[in-house]
Amino acid sequence: MNLLNISLVIVSMAGLLLLVFSFKKKSQSPILLGGIAFIAPIFYFLGWISFLPIVPVIALAISYIGKKNVHYT
């Protein structure tokens, strides 16, 4: 593995941790940043570099879903 792959794996793990902890706090900004940091390296590793501009839109949708309080009764 080269240095780029190692650093992207570290960024992806940090993004996942930020995403999980911010889902617990229902905080939208860290969910957005964690989603971008988690999804972007995955798209890079899959070879979907042309789809990288879609990553913020996906992360924004995840942050809206994470912020919404849904009560199942």
How would you characterize this protein structure?
This protein is mainly α. The protein contains 3 helices and no strands. The model has no long low-confidence stretch (mean pLDDT 83).
Structure, briefly:
By secondary structure, the protein is mostly helical. It is 75% helix and 0% strand.
How much of the sequence lies in strands comes to: under 5%
Helix segment tally: 3
- Give Rg in angstroms: 13 Å
Q: Could you describe the largest sheet, including whether it forms a barrel? A: none
Would you count the extended β strands for me?
Answer: 0
As residue ranges, the low-confidence spans are none
Indicate how many domains the architecture comprises.
1
H-E string = HHH
Overall mean pLDDT stands at 83
The residue fraction in helices comes out at over 70%
Secondary structure: elements and pairs:
Elements: H1 3-25, H2 28-46, H3 55-67
Helix pairs in contact: 1-2, 2-3
